[in-house]
Specification:
- The protein has 5 domains: 90 residues, Rossmann fold; 57 residues, Dna Ligase, domain 1 (2-Layer Sandwich), CATH 3.30.1490; 236 residues, ATP-grasp fold, B domain (D-amino Acid Aminotransferase, Chain A, domain 1, 2-Layer Sandwich); 56 residues, no CATH class; 72 residues, Beta Barrel (OB fold (Dihydrolipoamide Acetyltransferase, E2P)).
- 27% of the residues lie in helices and 29% in strands.
- It has 16 helices and 34 strands.
- The strands form 9 sheets. It has an 8-stranded antiparallel beta sheet, sandwiched between helices.
- Helix 4 packs antiparallel against helix 5 and helix 11 packs antiparallel against helix 12.
Length: 575
Amino acid sequence: MFSTLLIANRGEIALRVARSARKLGIRTIAVHVEAERDAPHVRACDEAICIESYLDIPSILRAPGEAVHPGYGFHSENPAFAEAVIAAGRVWVGPPPAAMRALGDKANAKQLAAKAGVPVLPTYESKPEYPVVIKAIAGGGGRGMRLVRSAKELDAALASAKSEAEHAFGDGRLMLEKAILSPRHIEVQIFADAHGKVIHLGERDCSVQRRHQKLIEESPSPAVDITLRKKLGAAATAIARAAGYVGAGTVEFLVDENRDFLFIEANARLQVEHPVTEAVTGLDLVEWQLRIAAGEPLPLGQDDIRFEGHAIESRLCAEDPSRDFLPQSGRLALWRPADGVRVDHALETGLEISPQYDSLLAKLIVHAPGRDKAREQLAAALDATLALGLPTNKAFLAAVLRDPEFAEGRATTSLLEDRLTGWKAPAVDEPLARRLYACAKADAAGFGEWSAWSNARHDPLPAAPHALNGDTLYFARDGHSYTWRDTTMDPPAKRAAGLDGRALTAPMNGRVVAVHAKAGDAVAAGAPLVVLEAMKMEHTLAAPAALRVAAVHVVRGVQVAPGKLLMEFEQGEMT
């Protein structure tokens, strides 16, 4: 076993890897950019090296360490990075570069799967039968992926997917596949060692998704019986053997209502949702990765794997479900995770959430004897978690877990679209917010007992978790998080701004990647106006009505902050 490990990542996955390495007595080295010099993952490691960027391979490899663990994201599926690590005489904690190339290219992976006898989705070279799915050949995680229902949508979707894929993966190649509407999304965790042994650790149901990105994962799947589990496991391990795989990986399938399955892709890395499998098997998957990278055989055989209970994971993300899941950034005013459940995170009160990285904040994982108990406990844990200062999907996740279709185990990939489109958090209770704000200001001013939350003479006010930032109050109530700002001192002009619908402003931090209109243009309702890139995803801002553009205030490539004026329109709708 190697004695030092360079963790080429950040955030919660860097902390997760460090925890298993420490258990094995391995010294850990963190990397960080200047802005994250004091980040939790840096403090958790034995040594830390400042680098230019988490994508800068030469900078990363100047850091010491006998072995290199890539985590997930960044370079975890980049065979060139793996080759650079190996060429430097270090141990690569991951699959062989050849296997990464074979599976990382979606078109090649499908051919490999078909040769192994695994059914695959049809691919179209021309004249597709709609609906179809556009996929980035070199990528994953929902980036560069679009559902197209008719020919008139195809050109715009191809352009958008290509742009997103180029920015995310440096490779704009795309492919068209037949779209299977409302399937289950089931993935199988595989492990292989360098001695020819390949096993699987069961399945995870990842059907609850938004924009093709997973939100809730569970194991076992309520749709998979023993027979289907064996078939999926056999298919996944066959693909791994065909690719010459070593290490941890995931093979993904779509499963229809008849329990027929089709291979869609393989991920040559540890998945975000690996804690679900750890919970039901009792195994440490990162420890297995390290041991296999050191040349050890798999600790267990297929017949030794045991599954106990039910596990569900939810991804807490910095995004606003009330606004089409727009990513959010800013300062985390208060962070307090729920007690009694596993929470994988690298958060702390006061941490700045950057728009440069993925929107994932934390993962909450519950393991219980049965599915109903696990679901109820996870929903309660989300209610109890405090993440104040910026919008998150916390309350939305709890609503999904309590949705009857999910509760009955019938969720498919269309669950959110079918049942939770238009979900809104309850509006702020203005009188309550004003009273909470007054008490919080009094507390901040140090008025002692006179500012106690229950001192109101006739209507005692119960304490509420809160954080105060100037004239803005963040507070939690009944599982929801709220932001309320005291505008009484604003000038009248500022209070009235933005109410006449004659301007388009940025809803988030981001980079302008496209401007689709110029001054004088007449645009139809729903026409794309500006495309912003934030947290590795593109977001199209469309015209709310038929309008004429009066002025454009941004150009492609500029960074914008929330509230930045992008376009102005002439007064009144076009007729």
